């Protein structure tokens, strides 16, 4: 009735060896994969022997289906799929008892397109992460053993920051443009020196029961990326970041006090700072002005200047004294990927990635930091962009026009978690970083792809800002027409690498209405803002 195409072969010229109660594989592997590439579902029939919970033939059939993106339909609920104690297979496969075989067509027809896409993506994630190479298989075995005996995973790698010596000049003044905050308090005055985010190793009481969700959320950060199994899959669930900073269990705060919104940082992590990471290339005057504008910024831990130029700073260059450390990091080569290296000098979970010509007021930065603290697994920033489908050329386009909808936030002025710097630099496919180096472009698009791919959430845009360039600064490369053509190419190439378009649209934007609303100290009554 539905004109569904179903292929069932009962004869085979070249059957593969199999167990007595097992359905044999037919033909060569290449021939089977060609059929599966055009298939939405692949039938995997469990052995007839009820005491035989797994077999080589079923495993081969399962892995071949996952490899090409077909959804395995396992007939026989007594069978145990690989690592079933860790992997939630129902998110990637359909498992049906054999007596219900007559209902199989109806069950498959009940799946929506979005469900099938999610299952195929999850299946591909499982294949790429745990079964695709001998190295991944070995890591999976070791990871399962490590989890069973509750041994922590190895610490993540941090990039050593080779500091360039520099001398500070006079105390930085207050930029009149930044003082335009009215009578708005930016937050409590920090009287203590900069402090780092707490570092956590995985708790030794973290048991295999707790890993059930961690292995099975799709797609995790390691879809298409080999990794050590049981490393965190979703930032919101991760408990470990090794020797670096990590997504830590959130403790209780001091909320409900009725204080003014500006009188306390609030939230569930009431004591926290962020690090500014600023990429620069041979624009010393612009850089000095940008650093001076950071003077007096609340909750700023330090500034890490990524010196992307092969030439060292001028000997007579006087750096502004903003009352906080300014670490100037020497890089091995001029690469936009250096923006996202997980420098060991960054000691906070929160990173504000900002261009050296970005011009943001302190209240805007503070508001962005507060919003990020409510969505720590997202990119939170100011300039929004979106991708669009070109029907005529059947390809993706990058669009910077003003729009109510967006799918990217440029990392020239955005908050993100340090963990994503680790993923970007060491886990994301090298082909993406190579293209960024080739075009000297698109590193912000690559980071948006990565985070949306991991979280399956769009970024968050704050305020109505659509640009952030400082007035009077030299014209950036983004004004060149070739800049947009290259970004079109980047988006289409990244889609090929990921195998799908991970960016998600959103019309959600956070504006500073509550940020500018004062609640009297003597009022404990709750207010609702709509």
UniProtKB/TrEMBL annotation:
Its EC number is 2.4.1.223. The keyword Ligase does not apply. Its cofactor is Mn(2+). GO terms for biological process: heparan sulfate proteoglycan biosynthetic process; negative regulation of inflammatory response to wounding; negative regulation of keratinocyte differentiation; positive regulation of keratinocyte proliferation; positive regulation of phosphatidylinositol 3-kinase/protein kinase B signal transduction. It is a single-pass type II membrane protein. It is found in: Endoplasmic reticulum membrane; Golgi apparatus. Its main location: endoplasmic reticulum. Keywords: Disulfide bond, Endoplasmic reticulum, Glycoprotein, Glycosyltransferase, Golgi apparatus, Manganese, Membrane, Metal-binding, Signal-anchor, Transferase, Transmembrane, Transmembrane helix. GO terms for cellular component: endoplasmic reticulum membrane; Golgi apparatus. One of its GO terms (molecular function) is metal ion binding. It catalyses: 3-O-(beta-D-GlcA-(1->3)-beta-D-Gal-(1->3)-beta-D-Gal-(1->4)-beta-D-Xyl)-L-seryl-[protein] + UDP-N-acetyl-alpha-D-glucosamine = 3-O-(alpha-D-GlcNAc-(1->4)-beta-D-GlcA-(1->3)-beta-D-Gal-(1->3)-beta-D-Gal-(1->4)-beta-D-Xyl)-L-seryl-[protein] + UDP + H(+). Signal peptide: none annotated. Homodimer; disulfide-linked. Interacts with REG3A. Receptor for REG3A, REG3B and REG3G, induces the activation of downstream signaling pathways such as PI3K-AKT or RAS-RAF-MEK-ERK signaling pathway. Required for the function of REG3A in regulating keratinocyte proliferation and differentiation. Required for the inhibition of skin inflammation mediated by REG3A through the activation of PI3K-AKT-STAT3 pathway. Required for the function of REG3A and REG3G in glucose tolerance in pancreas. Glycosyltransferase which regulates the biosynthesis of heparan sulfate (HS). Initiates HS synthesis by transferring the first N-acetyl-alpha-D-glucosamine (alpha-GlcNAc) residue (GlcNAcT-I activity) to the tetrasaccharide linker (GlcA-Gal-Gal-Xyl-)Ser core linker. May also transfer alpha-GlcNAc residues during HS elongation (GlcNAcT-II activity). Lacks glucuronyl transferase II (GlcAT-II) activity. Important for both skeletal development and hematopoiesis, through the formation of HS proteoglycans (HSPGs). This is Exostosin-like 3. The lineage of its organism: Eukaryota, Metazoa, Chordata, Craniata, Vertebrata.
